[in-house]
TrEMBL record:
One of its GO terms (biological process) is DNA integration. InterPro entries: DNA_brk_join_enz, Integrase-like_cat_sf, Integrase_catalytic, Integrase_recombinase_N, Tyrosine_recombinase_XerCD. CDD domains: INT_Rci_Hp1_C. The keyword Metal-binding does not apply. Residues 152-323 form the Tyr recombinase domain. Residues 333-372 are annotated as: Disordered. This is Site-specific integrase. The keyword DNA-binding applies. Belongs to the 'phage' integrase family. It comes from the Bacteria. Keywords: DNA integration, DNA recombination, DNA-binding.
Length: 372
């Protein structure tokens, strides 16, 4: 069995002063007699060897970008890889200097049915090109037009619809997933990665933070669960075959997309995804009057996102503001009189409507008062 090839390394050659770099059968002189200088030459040699050619294609640069992300153990590396599949199909054979707005907008047309994916993919392409520029592999970054971010669609379901979805789940692992999602507001990845050693059924707590997972912007936290939820999970734990809470046939479940969709069809729910449950939990808590901080801590969601949902589902928190803007007493009577006047008189009054609003129809605006 042949020995594995060794990486480039420094060697000495008998009868010669300089240090040399041996790379397989190739031997290259560093031109340096000092070991420290020779090591610097070796670093330059490895960097040059790892760098793509000046004529590198987008496909090669995307591969280098992936190598860098995996070398730094970036948590989203696997998700980023899915963007590269579509980018390579359209831009792969082009060099960076060959990309024009025609190519970019043709890609817009190609992916117009997936607007969110289109935006993420083009951002990844631009990031890759900036990475290549910073590494000295290309001279400039071509213009990459990115579509504007669409306003989020906060699809949510009621508690009754969530219950029907739970009972429509015909597989134990899916029913457990939906139960945890609708009672904690946790993300899909946090639930699928949950292990039994982080589920404290005695004290009714779940720790969604995986100690082996790198910290990202998507927070995970320790949350309490209801007694009824703990009782249901106790039955699952008795039958567990793996350390993972969500398992199927003795293996951890990587995704619930297909089984979740079947359950939605059985429950007659449209446009519902696992992430919809998170939005729904936030909306339920907002409608129940819980504060932004309470909802944020419970669902491990940023305050900005909570506030957006809060304004939609519980605008009652602005009631004191509305009260401070209340018109004078008796305004309704004035509008009632106006509605009973003849059309000719209404037109005359409409011409002087500004006067009506400043007190020329029988009432004066209140004097300003200081708020306590």
């Amino acid at each position: 069995m042949p020995r594995p090839k060794q990486p480039p390394r420094l060697v000495e050659i008998k009868g010669r002063e300089n240090w040399y770099i041996r790379d397989g059968r190739e031997v290259v002189s560093t031109g340096a007699t000092d070991r420290t200088e020779a090591e610097q030459c070796l670093i330059d040699y490895n960097n040059h060897k790892a760098a793509p050619a000046r004529t590198a294609s987008i496909w090669e640069l995307l591969d280098k970008r992936m190598e860098d992300m995996r070398g730094r153990e970036v948590a989203r590396a696997d998700n980023t890889r899915s963007y590269h599949k579509h980018l390579c199909g359209h831009f792969g054979k082009l060099r960076p200097d060959q990309i024009t707005s025609v190519h970019v907008h043709a890609y817009w047309k190609l992916r117009e049915k997936r607007p969110a994916a289109l935006r993420d993919e083009l951002i990844e392409l631009r990031t890759t090109l900036k990475f290549a520029l910073d590494s000295g592999w290309i001279n400039r970054v071509p213009r990459i037009d990115i579509p504007a971010k669409r306003p989020p669609r906060y699809r949510f379901i009621t508690r009754e619809e969530a219950a029907s979805l739970l009972y429509a789940a015909d597989l134990p692992h899916l029913r457990a997933f939906i139960l945890i999602a609708m009672t904690t507001g946790a993300r899909k990845g946090a639930i699928l990665g949950l292990t039994w050693d982080r589920v404290d059924l005695e004290n009714c707590r779940i720790d969604f933070h995986d100690p082996e997972r790198r910290m990202t912007k998507k927070r995970r936290t320790v949350v309490p669960i209801a007694t009824t939820t703990a009782e249901a999970l106790e039955y699952l734990r008795r039958c567990a075959q793996t350390p993972f809470v969500i398992e199927f046939l003795g293996k951890p479940v990587k995704d619930v997309k297909k089984s979740f969709q079947r359950a939605c069809e059985s429950a007659k729910l449209k446009n519902v995804t696992p992430h919809t449950l998170k939005h729904s939990v936030i909306s339920w808590l907002a409608m129940d009057g819980f504060t932004v901080d309470e909802i944020s801590d419970m669902t491990a969601t940023t305050r900005e996102t909570i506030i957006t949902v809060y304004r939609k589902f519980d605008p009652g928190y602005l009631a004191p503001v509305a009260k401070s803007l209340a018109p004078p007493e008796g305004i309704a009577n004035q509008f009632a009189k106006l509605s009973q006047e003849p059309e000719s008189q209404k037109r005359q009054n409409s011409q002087g409507s500004h006067a009506f609003l400043v007190g020329e129809r029988g009432f004066e605006p209140p004097a300003p008062t200081s708020r306590t």
